[in-house]
Write a structure and sequence with these properties.
By secondary structure, the protein is an alpha/beta fold. The protein is built from 22 helices and 31 strands. A seven-stranded parallel beta sheet has the order 11-12-10-13-14-9-15, with helices on both faces. The chain has a six-stranded parallel beta sheet with strand order 16-26-25-17-24-23, with helices on both faces. Helix 8 runs parallel beside helix 9.
Length: 739
Amino acid sequence: MPKYARVIVDQSGGNAFDYEIPPPLEGKIQAGSRVSVPVRNRSARATVIELLDHSDAAGIRFLEAVIGARPVLTPSLIRLARWIADYYCCPIEPAMRAVLPQVIRLGAVRHKMQLFVRLLQAPAGGESVRLEGKAPKQAAVLRFLEAAGAPVPMALLLKKCDANHQTLAPLAKKGFVAVEPEQVIRDPFHDEKFLQTSNLVLNDEQNVVSQAVAEAIAARGVAAPILLHGVTGSGKTEIYLQAIQSVLRRGQTAIMLVPEISLTPQTVERFKSRFAASQECVAVLHSHLSSGERHDEWHKINEGRARIVIGARSAIFAPLENLGLIVVDEEHENSYKQEETPRYHGRDIAVLRASLEKCAILLGSATPSIESYYNASIGKYRLLRLTRRVDERKMPLMRIVDLRQESVKNTALLSSRLCAAIEARLEKREQSILFLNRRGFSTSLICQVCGYVCQCPNCSVALTYHRAASKLICHICGHTAPAPAKCPACADPKIRFLGAGTEKVEEAVARLFPKAVVRRMDADAMTRKDSFRETLAAFRTGKIDILVGTQMIAKGLHFPNVTLVGIINADLALHLPDFRAGERTFQLLTQVAGRAGRGEVEGEVFVQSFTPFSPSIQFARHHDFDGFWQQEMEFRKKYDFPPFSHMALITVRSPSQVKAAFSAETLGRRLKEILPPSTLLSEPAPAPLEKARGEFRFHLMLRTKAIMALSRRLREVLDKLTFPADVIVTVDIDPYQLM
């Protein structure tokens, strides 16, 4: 029997400590258990990562108590946390925080209990008839319970029978009923009705993919990860559903990752409908759940009552056992990358977990990431294709609108060609989607006399005007300010709003098409918990004619009556100082265009651009992923960008520009001393977004073939260097955000 437990104490900075297991707790503690331990003169919560027969630590104290009836982490999840700490160059404690949800870690939320009334026995000899005369409400309670045939919530029972607590007391005293507390599950979909659906017939291409996935599932981790490159509308989701169905038949479990919370309601609906016979087997994990719902969904998984988990990137840490399949939908999406410590990538963690669990993994996308497609090209992944849409539906026709010519005759947000196309759809009672990946009404407020721009005092960005809130808002730090009536610098009233966001597009569309029902779907409009679900439901049922939105409407959504997509400005991300700018533009255009023509009517897409001959736009226009990939690979290879190398981005930030610059230079000199010549290190330089949230930011960029070795060296250097108290240094391995 192990005598010691090695633990990671919450908020400890990441060191592991050994504690002796007291005799009363022997045999009750496992790796993954939550425990209470003494730390100096207080008690702290911790997670057991290992059990030991021997420890050389000095001054070992006794562990205090076990928290919970079962471990919260499986052995593979503990190994995953350790790998995250090593690879992403961070302490083990934040890695453990990522793996274990805060609502479980803090233990502040409890199971919800509710009083139920249960019928123990019916009164003998028709006594209930005699109660009608002298105690009619007691009789009503008994009749209601007999009809229900199961325990009934006390509040509901009293309401239905127009009774009160005094009504129940004599019935309980006589042994007719029992009032008992029972656990109530907080189900985020409790008010939804899901009609069971059956498997769709697969076409020839889908059958080939489905068979390959079945073979990978049967191989139990021996098969390579599968990259499914399927054009939009090719039926990838049906393959996911049938693959997971086969996993359940084998007595195994499955994880389904989606990149955006906005995709979760529709995905959940399709899964709960397909598995409606046992709805509880599907659990959902994402940040828009309440704390209570997250608590109950997680415990449903941990206790084995859920066999399918659907969610965003953190759902990859769901404590499922006996995994048979992990699916990563839209595997190319940037939102799988976490931008806070630990800066892990959900797709890459999914591939690693599949390896640890010895289960199959399926990565799907219409526009695979350059890195994943490269892995397929060198045989690390198995590449499967779906080259056509289901039922032989045509890919949407993409038309490029040159805004350089259009702007001469039209200053509106929508070109005349796009307006005419929207009008035609409204006449046919078809639906349209208009996409602009920029929130707010106007992107800046500028004085036409002196050139003053209203800027955020905390960040190096202009403030965005939001008309609904009548405020200027910074989308980086959240700073707000009233919109001035005249220039704050020269007091001239000729201050104007420039640029456009989704709020302005919504207003313009509503003005141009007054009879149409127009709604907006972005982070500002979707503030309530059920906003996503309600808006998508209204759009699906035809209550909305035109949906205006940001990238949350760009992928994954399936609405057969959408026949037109308009991309207001295709250039927004194309010219950013980021080597992935072209890739992101191609992916976004292809994904947005894919929302059109998913029903019986062929779709049409209008792409408005000031650079219409950009390769990213032209390859997207012709649905030519292979052509884009080949060109992009030439560019990446020439400059040794991923996938031909790994990158690490070090950010040094401080409220003091001088301290941030000096610390970055000091760190750069130290790294030059210890890094091998094969590692490329840039000179310290101000970040493209030099100031954010009141802090000045400097970047050091590194490129290497051996990323694990680089991570270890970075940790060694950072552990030894001392920086001023107000200087923060962060490391991002395989960064996706270079601003």
